[in-house]
Records
---
Amino acid sequence: MTSETISEPNKRGRPRSEEVEQAILKATVRLLDERGLQALTIEDVASLAKVGKTSIYRRWPSKGILALEAFLSEFLQLQPPIDTGSLEGDLNAALSAWVGAVAGTPTGRNLVALIAQAQSDPDLAIAWSERVVMAARNQHRSMIERAIARNEIPRDSDVDVLMDMLYGPAYHRLLQGHLPLTEGFAQQVVAVVVAGAKAGGAVPLTIHKA
Amino acid sequence: MTSETISEPNKRGRPRSEEVEQAILKATVRLLDERGLQALTIEDVASLAKVGKTSIYRRWPSKGILALEAFLSEFLQLQPPIDTGSLEGDLNAALSAWVGAVAGTPTGRNLVALIAQAQSDPDLAIAWSERVVMAARNQHRSMIERAIARNEIPRDSDVDVLMDMLYGPAYHRLLQGHLPLTEGFAQQVVAVVVAGAKAGGAVPLTIHKA
Amino acid sequence: MTSETISEPNKRGRPRSEEVEQAILKATVRLLDERGLQALTIEDVASLAKVGKTSIYRRWPSKGILALEAFLSEFLQLQPPIDTGSLEGDLNAALSAWVGAVAGTPTGRNLVALIAQAQSDPDLAIAWSERVVMAARNQHRSMIERAIARNEIPRDSDVDVLMDMLYGPAYHRLLQGHLPLTEGFAQQVVAVVVAGAKAGGAVPLTIHKA
Amino acid sequence: MTSETISEPNKRGRPRSEEVEQAILKATVRLLDERGLQALTIEDVASLAKVGKTSIYRRWPSKGILALEAFLSEFLQLQPPIDTGSLEGDLNAALSAWVGAVAGTPTGRNLVALIAQAQSDPDLAIAWSERVVMAARNQHRSMIERAIARNEIPRDSDVDVLMDMLYGPAYHRLLQGHLPLTEGFAQQVVAVVVAGAKAGGAVPLTIHKA
DNA sequence: CCCTAAACGAGACGGTACGTCTAGTCTTATG
DNA sequence: CATAAGACTAGACGTACCGTCTCGTTTAGGG
């Protein structure tokens, strides 16, 4: 996400200050980790960053989008590219990394808060989908496609379903908090999914039932 | 949930009016379905229900808890008890009923909004956990335990993991909205989980690995 | 009284709008005259002036202080400077002008209400004292001092006592309402005071008794 | 003032409790002296007196009337009947007693608050006028009439004006608080009034000017 | 000795206004 | 033109009391 979220930059006039931008993001990250998204106010960010509110609104249309960018600056570097050579190995590595990044951390709290916020902020929902959900799915998709290429699972397995079955349960525990989100849980989920996929459970229904 | 959400009832003084209670819940349900939780205000509820704000605060400590109760009055009757005789049949029926109740409906929107709200409202989080999550899990648990009793799946399958694998993916699609939440999807999820469970994927790791 | 009743003005940022200030005062005067101080609410003022409540609180710390300023904008122009050449003439003119301004008028009602309000609002009490009581006394004091200079009354007359004896009875009738407050009454009061003063009644006790 | 301020007592049914009445008055006096009329709430009185709000409203129609009765239970015994034999002696004694009762005392604060409250409470205004103003005036009137009978002052002096000139200045200092209300001040006022009256200043204008 | 009716404590009720907070926009002077 | 500051309108928040209204309970006569 570049700075010019709202409108094209203009060549004329005073250029936007990179320092202002960084000060805002830094203040946002700090407030986000200290108090959470819900308690974050644009006024507090402006005041902590020693910046006018206008300078924030000029760059980000809403608190959610701003928080998303601040969140990503922390989150992305925690999700390394993975290729272990086996489906179960890849999935275990990916899901474990994710669990490690979010279970019991401010990052995890922010992730949850952003999903929550996106439910009532359509712009954030779109940005979230494009910049987080899609990015992650592309990574996971290639793991599964490699597994298909290796004939580990049936050629016509429904990749989307498999991906949702990997991350769905993990998000579920993160959001509902009813049971702890551990690496052990992640490995169990992977085990069930891999077993189910190898047994052909993810083959599309129309074909499967035929 | 009785009226005395905040403190226990007192024999003395004028009793709380059941009509007032119903009027508030009715108004809340209506506003929730029309405008959603985010746009719901206590003042609007009071005004629509022709009730003083105090009569609401006397009963419910926050907008979230009020909305939860209103939500449950709609939601609960959409989740029938189920016993089809087979694990796959039970799970398909339960998950399909859930999908039918929430996919593309105001009820679904409210459910999502409540999960979102619970992320920043500890009281609501507790109430949500007790009144929704636990209630659902008890129902699902008995299905899986019947399956174990019928020897459909291994005796030592991790019931909690299996439940999270059923509802996790469905919640995931509902919350992230990246792909449609359909009955077909529900059946695929069930197929993978049942296949994985029968293959022993849900057996606890310590034992499984041994 | 400048706009910056609460804190000193700041050079930076958007300056306070003079139009807003006038709109608030105008609305306050109108509501004060229509309904009285007791029935005046900040919310009504804001709504009539088409102004946010904050814009009122930013300028005036309480309803009483706001009402005082609105009152003064009406009242001050009704109290002309006076110099007739004789003590009785001056006092008659001054007291008659006061009686004319307050007897049976909204201004009088507001004056009474402000005195009432000041009894339970220390800030208003101070402002009232400084901006009304002291201002009036300074005017009256000079009349009496001129009379002393003309040798109309004894040099050592207690000016404070004489002033309280002029306005005290008038305020008394205005506040207690037991008898009408007329110009005739004002002239009688002046007659007694002038007669008493000339007879030496206002000379301080210690000297008087000696 | 009897208990039945609002409506006739009824022979049938449970009689009103004298203890309740006293408990309410006692609580009112205490709260009045501790916090003042402005901060007095019916709810606090009820709670302190361990009495239902209804039991208060059954007896007194408003906070002002209740406070008036509580006030009088303290005040009346501080205003003794007076007859010294001379006008100046009578007036000095009466005014000094009044000053002693109200200057710097809770009683004085309550008296001021009641006058203030009466400005926006017509019922209280009437009761105040009848039970305080008139009672005092009747006492003072007889002093002046005795002085006329003794030929101390002119037969046709305006008694009402003289009375307002005695108490007006004293009320003035009590209410405006601009200068201390002392016995010395009271004596100066009396001196001026007596001197003015003897000089014929209080004779009605129409006759006086003729 | 019951019966009836009012008083009683408690506290719920519909309202109103409070003073605070935050949102997102607008308006200055300055760079 | 961007910037920092801060004023602007708007409107919800949760609280405090108001004066009224139920409750179940108590306390007296009158029959």
---
Amino acid sequence: MAHSCGCDMRGFLSFQILWLLSKSELCGEELAVEIEKRRGEKPKPGTLYPALKDLSEKGLVKGRKSGKTVSYVLTDDGMAAVKEAKAYFIRSFGDILAR
Amino acid sequence: MAHSCGCDMRGFLSFQILWLLSKSELCGEELAVEIEKRRGEKPKPGTLYPALKDLSEKGLVKGRKSGKTVSYVLTDDGMAAVKEAKAYFIRSFGDILAR
DNA sequence: TTAAATATATAGGATGTCTTATATTTATGC
DNA sequence: GCATAAATATAAGACATCCTATATATTTAA
């Protein structure tokens, strides 16, 4: 996800995935579209799917294959993780968005 | 900066440094304290100083040594970078902080 | 002046996020 | 059926962010 400003803006992909899944069940392609709406660029398959695999192996999300797609939902651990991660995120960066 | 939740919460250190410097001139140690207030843990010297060196080499910040400390300020390029980076950050993650 | 504390700096290693490229599986259209 | 498209998956490599450990410079205290 190339970006033009001088400083590196990578990070928090897994957190963003968990946060999106905390709002609705989504498949990989739908996740990519939601991320593109926000970041301006769609994550490449080689970025997104390894992240989903990692979250799945950690037991934070669960994929359910239905035909061509795999729908992801948060596990109980995933729900706890996103709650804690969101609190950390707001505490770390909340003042950047404050008016 | 260890963190207990399941998903990785690294990232945006350089952006956070630029954003803090856009509010006031700070030395490395003062930056570390400001970051600790937000993230809960002080970045280790081996994390912070290489980041400052990198930003300096990119021409986004400028260090002025005065005695024991080095005070950092944004360059013109740095001010432009933080403005653009902030817009990107808000577009990418603003809805996570919305109430 | 010497010792300790503070601030800065560098080296080497681990990991997540990115890339490009390639492969596999399933659905769709002819 | 057969080719194409869509969705998922994996591999290899680059880089920022994190760590621990060590080193250097400057100030402060004894």
